[in-house]
Fold this protein.
Amino acid sequence: MKEIIQKNLESGQLEECDLTLKDLDKIGDSFARILTGMFHTRVEYPDDDLIKKAKEEKKKNGNSGRKSTKNNKDKSRKNKRDNQKGSATSKS
């Protein structure tokens, strides 16, 4: 952006304007910021093949490594019964 402004200054295109060099510098910075926002690089998303592979793995593995709530409830009930049995035998 600064090169464009410099070329216009050297060619005399800005001789009759009331802009100072400081003003031109601010304008150049603003254009650079706006153009960077408009033409920013896109976020790279996972490849379609990678997504398909992940979905296939999830199907193969069932619940993708998560424990089901049913199993957790069953274990909780079993632990509760074991604790009750243990406390009943220790009272004797």
